[in-house]
TrEMBL record:
InterPro entries: Na+/solute_symporter_sf, Put_Na-Bile_cotransptr. It comes from Pseudomonas panipatensis. The chain crosses the membrane at residues 34-54, 66-87, 99-119, 131-154, 205-224, 230-249. GO terms for cellular component: plasma membrane. It comes from the Bacteria. The keyword Metal-binding does not apply. This is Solute carrier family 10 (Sodium/bile acid cotransporter), member 7. Coiled coil: none annotated. Signal peptide: none annotated. The keyword Chloroplast does not apply. Keywords: Membrane, Transmembrane, Transmembrane helix.
Length: 333
């Protein structure tokens, strides 16, 4: 039986199911701690396998792709803050003043690392460049985001502990497994190349785990009760508009600047996302405890929307790449 054309792909359906389960049965307490550990292990395994898969030459090429990294950083730390200020007259009437402060805080954050690389992998983009760009964005953001927050919101804070914790987390969770995979590439690289579907399942599984744990935490913190329904609806519109502009801008800029399709995919997925993992600990330092929940609500909602939208976008990129590969194979025959 043929699959209905209007039916989303299995991964998108899995994402919808994951969000539904997290809304109805959010993990909490010891279960949440266990899921957190499982998620971290899955992400570590993902980067270990990517480290074992990528050749040293590919990593060096990704790290030295300065034009791509410059465009990603400009989107993350220049385009987003400008959009936050320029769109204020249009979007602030849709939400409460505190929620729009959260929107400005969202615009100052670095790019997310795990999902950016996972979606780039699913879409068959430039993975080495994504690893370097997303990781560098997160590390630079640890220092740059507090300065942007101070400029956008006038908030001051001591970020010393948060900075050290974030650097340690990024190093242990991402760089150490990646380096370990590189070290063991000679021993397991051929096995990884022969079992590429395993890497795909790890990609998708890690994203589903991040969605479930992040959305569970948001639901438990009162995602559906902290603001009026009208303000929540307005916040959804504001987040969707912000993401749409970022996706459109990164796509068009990458094409006009002459990047190939693999680089375009990396720029789109690394330059349009914001990090929940970095945003939460920073908010605990930069804002008063009573206002953290509302400040973080736009980030939590934007995080879920970007995962859902980018999952669909990654599948479309992958399908387009498959069609092109099939056409090239047919022509060569």
């Amino acid at each position: 039986m043929a699959r209905p054309r209007l039916l989303p792909d299995n991964f998108t359906l899995a994402l919808v199911a994951t969000v539904t389960v997290a809304s109805l049965l959010p993990c909490q307490g010891t279960v949440a701690v266990a899921f957190g550990w499982i998620t971290n292990l899955a992400i570590g395994l993902l980067f270990f396998l990517h480290g074992a898969k990528l050749s040293r030459q590919a990593i060096i090429a990704g790290a030295t792709h300065w034009r791509l990294h410059l465009l990603v950083f400009a989107s993350t730390f220049i385009l987003f803050p400008i959009l936050g200020l320029v769109l204020k007259p249009l979007l602030s009437p849709l939400v409460t003043p505190d929620l729009y402060l959260g929107m400005l805080y969202l615009c100052a954050l670095p790019a997310t690392v795990q999902s950016s690389i996972a979606f780039t992998s699913l879409a068959r983009g430039n993975i080495p460049a994504a690893v370097c760009s997303a990781s560098a964005s997160s590390l630079i953001g640890i220092f740059l985001t507090p300065l942007l927050v101070q400029l956008l919101l006038g908030v001051h804070g001591d970020t010393g502990v948060s900075t050290l914790d974030a650097i340690g987390k990024i190093t242990l969770q991402l760089l150490v497994p990646f380096i370990a995979g590189q070290v063991l590439r000679r021993a397991i690289g051929d096995w990884v190349d022969r079992h590429k579907p395993v890497l795909r399942y790890v990609d998708q599984g890690s994203i589903l785990l991040v969605v479930y744990t992040a959305f569970s935490a948001a639901v438990i913190q009162g995602l559906w009760h902290q603001v009026p329904v009208s303000a929540l609806a307005g916040l959804v519109v504001a987040c969707c508009l912000l993401l749409s502009i970022a996706l459109f801008a990164t796509t068009q800029l990458s094409r006009r600047l002459g990047f190939d399709k693999a680089d375009e995919i990396t720029i789109v997925f690394c330059g349009s996302k914001k990090s929940l993992a970095t945003g939460v600990p920073m908010a605990q330092v930069l804002f008063a405890s009573g206002s953290i929940g509302v400040i973080l609500l736009p980030l939590m909602l934007f995080h879920q929307i970007q995962l859902m939208v980018c999952a669909v976008l990654a599948q479309r990129y992958a399908q387009r790449q498959n069609r092109q590969a099939t056409a090239q194979t047919a022509q060569s025959r």
